[in-house]
From TrEMBL, chains A, B, C:
Topology in the lipid bilayer: Multi-pass membrane protein
Organism per entry: Sinocyclocheilus anshuiensis
Gene Ontology biological-process annotations: ammonium homeostasis
Keywords: Ammonia transport, Cell membrane, Glycoprotein, Membrane, Transmembrane, Transmembrane helix, Transport
Regions that span the bilayer: 12-32, 66-84, 90-109, 154-175, 187-205, 225-244, 256-276, 309-329, 350-372, 400-421
Subcellular location: Cell membrane
Lineage of the organism: Eukaryota, Metazoa, Chordata, Craniata, Vertebrata
Coiled coil: none
Keyword Transmembrane helix tagged: yes
InterPro entries associated with the record: Ammonium/urea_transptr (IPR029020), NH4_transpt_AmtB-like_dom (IPR024041), RhesusRHD (IPR002229)
Encoding gene per record: LOC107670225
GO cellular component, one term: plasma membrane
Protein name: Ammonium transporter Rh type C-like 2
Length: 464, 464, 464
């Protein structure tokens, strides 16, 4: 096996890791401190503010959800991408690297926009910041799905640096300037992340990618590994969509809506997968991915009074659309639009994300005092302060505007970053070496061995 | 490889999925709404009821346990069944499908019996309903274990439709009519589910199943995948048994009792497994399954004052009995009683479930005011309202009656549903195609390949 | 394949399991009861103590963290050790056995030291005891990493019996006598456990271990299985370090510090791994292990005001040191010091643990009233009762003393237990049978099959 000398990342990867990590330390030193709930002064703060119990600390409202989200980011995204027969190290390992960098950079970028204490110029962090950092990284990991197997870890780090930056800005515009709501991030995370990744993949189009076609597929047990990712994403999605929702009914309702939307999606995904095969067999690709579309699409509206059947309806259509996407749209994307999308993020994140934004806009516009209650309406949409006079119909318009912002940032940012990544300095693999762990990982070279010894090991083939 | 044309489920599977999912949407539209803790009116409800903090929302008492239970249902049950060398897709995938449908139908069925608001005829759901739906589905997934590899996904869906229905009725009789307690579901979930599955398997007996004997076993790594299921079930079982227990000491005690019973089971399982092999080797089947028996058996009594050593004793005997079941009773069941039990649910759920019911009855009958305290006794057994005059000894009798109800529903329901599933319309595999993913899954056909190319891939055999 | 007749554990393993489990039941019967928060008298206790809500039960403060820790113990440690190509059953299975015994013995040992109610001579247990039992077992599982593949399950149980006992004593000395703080157990768990295991491995040195060299390594998918362990350890480490920290800001801050330290470690681990390979490739051994070093090292200081950038700095250096350990120090340990350390626990637990103890001592000594607040300082370091007059600088000295105690107990205890394990009665494998599941597990014998049939199964090599 030959590969271009350019996949040597012996200097670039360590350099990027060291320099960026040192920068994080310096920036954290200058800017980041504990907030009043994670600082030892909490004990004074409690007394001053008549908080009766430690359990009122935001930590207890959000920590269980945080840990679930954390699992989604590292095990969910990581293992979902292990489906390729020969890229499991890259899937899990680079996902790990990119997310570990991204959460630090996100704490800073989101901190400057959302958690800056103007009295001392410091970012004050607590559990909600950790969740938001994980969310921010999710956008970049979605984008990774489009370029899986075709880029170097250095490129992934660059993608993440820019991705987190763009994310923080679009999030600020959508949530703060437009005052749109997006608890589960259909727009902010999924739409942005998916179009960011697709645009990058478009710019990095490889006309001769079929040279590594033999590795661009799964084997039996790599599909089983991928199901670990699928299931942890599916199971913990209610935590994802409720993690930063309002205390009390907000978190409660977001979890219920997501639980239901996801259940519905599974059935229509199975139905469509079976319907489009000769003898009604199921395709693992659909089960691994399209079953999750309902969680994406219910993200924005999860904390609204979408009602249980509303959630089921959203899930119902997303299972159908996402599976059809894998069957018809992915080949079209690749052949006509020249977008090579390894994991099919267009079907799992882009389309369901846009649907989620639209569902959010419609359900916000349709909100009434009867359904929500006066206080409930004010609470759910935060019609307070400068937004005290906003009404649901107007809110619906701002929600739609938010969706456009996410799309623009995703596409525009993706094209820009794609051009940066096209520079011939990042150590990406040649076409014939894509989807192969051998390029970036030690001790998994099969080529040398295969020339002088039989490669069949009896070790894993026992008790048949 | 030849299989009957009847395994074509191209129309039946999509039809069932679509029609049933549409029915769910309609029924949810008519019947299901948020309850007062997941509705935006919570903010008003809080004020009216002087609830001092959002953290008093039931969501915060139960959400962590809910997510653990959710993992048990989808990863625990799913991966536990991946032990077969060639049925991992069916194990994880059909488990996923069946559970996703079952939780919706369970929300309705259990809702009508337990959460119907008579003022407006609506089912009002919150986090506890989601947990109960997961519990209800657990009964059907246990039953799946008996028929694993021998039925079509359409049959599994039919099994689940009836299973959930029967479950909701027996649960209503046991918990509401008899007023028995069963926090961890030894009777309601495990006894019912196991006898339901065993009865179905008895009706569907295949005399020539040894035609697919070569696939009815594990390989090295399928056993490792199965350990993922085992461990997530084992670790989260304290959450399972405490998820719907009383707030405060009830949940606390249920978690402790389950933790201890399970620890004890592991040691006696290992002891028995080693004792019955020539050189003291361990059998993975026992480690994967019998180690969980203590969790089943401590289900009913988990919230009682079973005391820590009581829990250890329950676990001690269950490890022994369950392992002996795999060694002696499973062959007997198959040869003499004509019950083919793929996963050995008789040893993991049926016997421990019955033991759990008996332990529950005895420990309820033995409850005293000295041990529980007056208030504690009333709280634990809910001796209020129409049951205010019930005493522990009587309660013990009702507990025993509950066990009988679970048994009757399991056996009777199973025989009926077995007969329904015997109809030659469900696309089940021929005897020689059992335990083979090839029948229902795309891209895992080995037969064609094996005829014209060497099947040995070097890809997974590296760095030896 | 030949092995010594001494690997027959048909009598010793069942005997140890039964006798020890029976002893546990008797000792629990005599000593262990529920504490006031898990007993039905909680309802009275609440009223008497004006506790306004059930949510004030310690269960709700700690249960989510407990379950995360539980996952780390059983899935995290278990799967991390599956990296060996042919010892996955032993890794996951013996880890399971040892931990299940250890938590029971730990509840007793730690209970006598920490939770004995002197009014009735009973140990009163609640959720915090379960967490501490898991912690205690973690020390023994760390030690298992050094001897993985080279000892019998009986030896492991003996190791655990003594390990838990030694742990409870050193913990008592460090936390109670010296009044050092060690929320995440850098000293108490990691330093002790690692040196305990390394000392045992030193005493059990096998000069001819290279006879089983061919099995002392990984294959592609065993490395993927190991990543399950790595990631669950990494993700849930914030729960580990915060599980028994102070309510409120203590738990909150411990989670943040650990999250940050771990993120930082990933980047420097990747950097070092890449830097020391010819073409910048990564080594899975480093990614699986060194990425966790930051969590170890931030254990003691996690609940202190280490500040976010302080955590990043700790993680930064630990990634470097731990990876260098794998590259340079492990070979040195084996060749010069005759310590065979299968999993490299010296690099993952010993060095980072010592660093953690030192960081803890320094940050305690540097604590000021300005940073902590008067109340915060008193709370964080528990400067109350007999320790009311202690000041930070003195506390720093006691922290350092604690580290020495952990080291002494680890090394001294390990040498003693190593000598016990050297007795020729424990059924350990011959040098040529190390790292081989075949010795202790049924149905994974490859030798007999290989003599009369081709061992290549097509089953796992499909859809290429």
């Amino acid at each position: 096996v030959a590969w271009g000398p350019n996949t040597n990342i012996k200097w670039s990867l360590p350099a990027v890791c060291f320099v960026w990590q040192l920068s994080m330390i310096i920036l954290f030193g200058v800017f980041v401190r504990y907030n009043e709930e994670s600082d030892t002064h909490w004990v004074d703060y409690r007394k001053e503010n008549n908080i009766t119990s430690d359990i009122e600390n935001d930590y207890y409202f959000r920590y269980p959800s945080f840990q679930d989200v954390h699992v989604m980011i590292f095990v969910g995204f990581g293992f979902l991408m292990t489906f390729l027969k020969r890229y499991s190290f890259g899937a899990v390992g680079f996902n790990f690297l990119v997310a570990a960098f991204g959460i630090q950079w996100a704490l800073l970028m989101q901190g400057w926009f959302h958690s800056l204490d103007y009295t001392d110029g410091k970012i004050k962090i607590g559990i909600e910041n950790l969740i938001n950092a994980d969310f921010c990284v999710a956008g970049c990991l979605i984008a990774y799905g489009a370029v899986l197997g075709k880029v170097s870890p250095v490129q992934l780090l660059v993608m993440t640096l820019f991705g987190v930056t763009l994310f923080a800005v679009e999030e600020y515009i959508i949530l703060n300037v437009l005052h749109a709501k997006d608890a589960g991030g259909s727009m902010v995370i999924h739409t942005f992340g998916a179009y960011y990744g697709l645009s990058i993949s478009w710019v990095l189009y490889r006309p001769n990618l079929d040279k590594s076609k033999h590795l661009n597929g799964s084997v039996y047990h790599s599909d089983v590994f991928a199901m670990i990712g699928t299931l942890f994403l599916w199971m913990f999605w209610p935590s994802f969509n409720s993690a930063i929702a309002d205390h009390g009914d907000g978190q409660h309702r977001a979890a219920i809506n997501t639980y239901l939307a996801l259940a519905s999606t599974v059935l229509t995904t199975v139905a469509m997968s079976s319907l489009f095969e000769k003898t009604g067999k199921l395709d693992m690709v659909h089960i691994q991915n399209s079953t999750l579309a309902g969680g994406v699409a219910v993200g924005t509206a999860a904390e609204f009074m979408l009602s249980p059947y509303g959630s089921l309806i959203v899930g119902f259509f997303c299972g159908i659309i996402s599976t059809l996407g894998y069957i018809y749209f992915s080949p079209f994307l690749e052949e006509k639009l020249k977008i090579q999308d390894t994991c099919g993020i267009h079907n799992l994140h882009a389309m369901p994300g846009v649907i989620g934004g639209i569902v959010g806009a419609i359900s916000a516009a349709a909100a009434t005092n009867t359904v929500y209650g006066d206080l409930g309406l004010e609470n759910t949409f935060d019609f307070t302060g400068p937004f005290a006079k906003r009404v649901p119909t107007i809110q619906g318009g701002y929600q739609a505007a938010g969706l456009c912002v996410a799309l623009c940032f995703g596409i525009g940012g993706g094209i820009f970053v794609g051009l940066v990544l096209k520079l011939p300095i990042w150590g990406d693999p040649a076409d014939e070496n894509c989807f192969d762990d051998e390029i970036y990982w030690e001790k998994c070279t099969i080529s040398k061995q295969s020339s002088h010894m039989p490669l069949i090991s009896p070790l894993w083939e026992v008790s048949m």
